[in-house]
Design a protein that fits this description.
Bound molecules: dinuclear copper ion
Helix content: 25-40%
Strand order of the largest sheet: 3-2-1-5-8
Distance between the termini: 41 Å
CATH architecture of the domain at 242-342: Sandwich
Shape: elongated
Strand content: 15-25%
Order of helices and strands: HHHEEEEEEEEEEHHEEHHHH
Largest sheet: 5 strands, mixed
Length: 343
């Protein structure tokens, strides 16, 4: 019964209820499928060993129990049995091989490096507490939502600007550390269109658990369209709405662009805001609504402790924050959105 409760807890943790596609148990990508196969293999072997050991254990305690009237009886003592010793050495060795061979094969399989002809190569940078994506070949810079085409190997160069993070989208792939000192490489390949939730999987500070991101998997045509849209983002373009215009002026006057670029500028002190209004969440975890943006602008520390925005821009009134939020909600640069990917 205890084991059942433990299994329930583990399942809950692995499926992380409430967030879309945040489970390692329903793989929709190459790496996740490999991990799942290995998990099933090792679980089956462990279950078999457990059952056999428990059966022998039960037989022994029943057969050799102290019986009434035989309190002083001691069963025959056996010392050394070559056959038995060989058997119980050989069986674990065979089991280790059955586990090790597919594991090592999968490790080599997943270590496939990008070659010159590989189409998509993205630099992924972990920051306290957000993710930056640099599509070097396409000259696209973006943050938080990573768009990739379905059924296509996408190669990632993963690093960090500050401390060690770990890039993890459990439904698509395994984890990869994001180190400040060196670049790790991995590839991801998603089998189904949709939005997949990603987590930072290495403790990196007070907002580690809020360092979420998404992979948006779209069709090849949608991806090509999205790339074209992103390449044509003009950060200077004036918004139409009057309140949003006020927000845009405040955005410029307060030098928000000193940290947050819009378009393909490489400035990446804070998240790039290209296509901001099409993101699925604000700051990784909150719903992307005007109210939440206002709360964020008035007190980012409350929403994401330890973030680098706190204290690095002039204090805003609620009205000013509202106008900036209105402006940010106009930053939609493509018709290809997470909603269109989910349909
Ligand atoms: Cu970044 Cu944990």
């Amino acid at each position: 019964f205890k084991a059942l409760i433990m299994l329930g807890i583990v399942t809950l943790v692995l499926t992380a209820c409430g967030k879309e596609n945040l489970t390692a148990l329903d793989p929709k990508g190459y790496g996740a499928e490999k991990s799942m196969d290995l998990m099933i293999l090792s679980t089956v072997i462990m279950a078999a060993v457990f059952i056999v050991v428990m059966l022998i254990f039960t037989v022994v305690i029943i057969r050799f129990r102290r019986k009434k009237g035989q309190e002083d009886f001691i069963p025959k003592q056996v010392e050394g049995n070559h056959t038995l010793e060989i058997v119980w050495t050989a069986i674990p060795i065979i089991l280790v091989f059955i586990l090790a061979v597919p594991t090592v094969m999968s490790v080599f399989d997943l270590a496939d490096e990008a070659d010159a002809s590989s189409s998509i190569n993205i630099e992924v940078t972990g920051n306290q507490y957000w993710w930056h994506f640099d599509y070097a070949g396409e000259e696209i810079q973006t943050s938080q939502d990573l768009y990739i085409p379905v059924n296509e190997k996408v190669y990632l160069d993963i690093n960090s600007t500050d401390v060690i993070h770990s890039f993890w989208v459990p439904t698509i792939s395994g984890k990869m550390d994001a180190n400040p000192e060196n670049t790790n490489t991995m590839f991801i390949e998603a089998y189904e269109e949709g939005v997949y939730w990603g987590k930072c999987a290495e403790f990196c500070g007070p907002s580690h658990s809020l360092m979420d991101f998404k992979i948006v998997v779209v069709s090849q045509e949608e991806y090509d369209q999205w790339v074209e849209d992103m390449q044509n983002v003009d950060p200077e373009v004036q918004v139409e709405d009057a309140v949003a215009q006020e927000g845009q002026e405040l955005f410029e006057a307060n030098n928000c662009m000193g940290c947050h670029a819009i378009g393909s500028s490489p400035v990446a002190v804070g998240p790039n805001l290209t296509n901001f209004a099409n993101r699925t969440t604000l700051a990784g975890v909150e719903d992307l609504t005007k109210e939440n943006i206002v709360s964020w602008l008035l007190d980012p520390e409350a929403m994401k402790p330890g973030n680098k925005m706190t204290g690095n821009y002039p204090e805003l009134t609620e009205d000013e924050a509202g106008s900036i939020a209105e402006y940010l909600m106009q930053l939609s640069h493509s018709d290809i959105t997470p909603e269109s990917a989910s349909n």
